Model the fold of this input.
Amino acid sequence: MSQSLTPLPERLRPKTLSAFVGQKHLVGDNGAISQALAQGVVPSMILWGPPGVGKTTLAQLVAEASGRSFHTLSAINSGVKDVRNVIDRARSGGMFAERSPILFIDEIHRFSKSQQDSLLGAVEKGWITLIGATTENPSFEVISALRSRCQLYVLKQLDKESLISLLERAIKEDPVLKPKKLKLKEPDALLLYSGGDARRMLNALELVANSSSEKEITNELCKKILQDRLADYDKGGEQHYDVISAFIKSVRGSDADAAMYWLARMTKGGEDPKFIARRLLILASEDIGLANPTAMVLANTCFQAVQSIGYPECELTLAQTTIYLARSAKSNSAYMALKRAQKLVEEYPSEPVPLHLRNAPTDLMKDLDYGKDYKYPHDYPGNWVAQDYLPEELKGKQIYVPGENKREKP
Done:
């Protein structure tokens, strides 16, 4: 493929770890991955971070720096059979090598449990060194058996300085852009559009450079070209966060029509249905809460159903849950109570437990009045009796304030 046809992010991909931008906590002089490479040890690892921060590039550089063969799988297009086939190839190819080959799996969070299970034996026996990349929390998406066999490395969002350095490097060094003699006058529009995603930002820069004869890259030029030419939804970029925000705010605001529109935008754009279901589950707890406890049960059932049946069959499940949550009564009383309690713990971190509430399993503790004068509520009419449960310094503090709905009214 000619250089002009190769995308700018690929042309600009660093060839050495020293040229890698950002993630100094991993690849700097004292970084965890740099230290491992210096010791000749490359553990299986999960690279967790937002889109466009260099997870794939880092995996390739680790393979090159450690002198290992590099095999790849996409979790979107691969099944259990594909996993076993590539493991067999990697194993046979590396059978007489001193170092196990690296198997890189992009978007490993999309692997089902059975697909992840198929990796365990190869990782345990050292046939392969696994590097998985994910934008989702591995605690939710990667099975515990596989997580326990991998080091977890968190990649951070690239800061403004790093992103601008990439833009300037592209303009000055890229063989396709360099002859255009471009000048980066205003980077803000490119930075805003990218949302911290370096790959998305470089693609946008290339689009602007190829769509105009202007030599100066300005905010006005970028906005005009990007708004006219780029897709409305990118599940890995800024629109991903904007649309899910609009979706959640519509459900919170009890607007079922708007919520369904944003849901359709996401499913049409290829958003991970598990991501949508997880956000609905969070909303059921944060924004509906005690006004309708059944909402959390339904949202959790939706999340489990989405995991079981997958896309596209789960679309209707998401739609039903979205409408139900949008039309439900709302209350954030539990959320606010938790915040108030956490603030009090910061202000009063070590208040002594009142004596009458303490446990008294030994005679000595009883002699010290542990548990003395405690009133057992079930011994009183209505199973309630007035007594203090907060520490002395916090007596009378109201942490939970009932919401304005039928279920929370006394």
The mean pLDDT is 84. The chain has four domains: 22-154, 160-229, 238-327, 334-408. The radius of gyration is 27 Å.
